[in-house]
Design goal:
This protein has about 130 residues and is mainly alpha-helical. The protein contains six helices and four strands.
Length: about 130
Amino acid sequence: MRIGELARRTDTTERSLRYYEEQDLLRPARRASGYREYAEDDVRVVRAIRMLLAAGLNTATIAEVLTCMTDDGEVLVPACVGLAPVLVRERRRIDATIDELLAARRLLDDIIEVAAQAPPTPPACDERVQ
């Protein structure tokens, strides 16, 4: 199938599919004309890539784990014994990012609280803030 059909069947964009190919996550065959030719299995691969991206993994990690995942139709299932440590590492990375974002939000909340209690600002400040 051509790239447009794969994009439609996986609810993604052609640009994303090209990016997945650049990241070596997809490996379509090439016709003599240079057009990409995708196999039926590429539908499953793209769905797996999208699920892993939605789970917070970056493309480098996806390249590391993709061949060790199978799709049961609803969720990805690890098919390799050594996959758990990689997924735990990614979970810890996501947890650390969440902690950093929560700290940033608390700091911003403090600033907002002080700003809400501040006296009225001169008109020049109002123009810059909009």
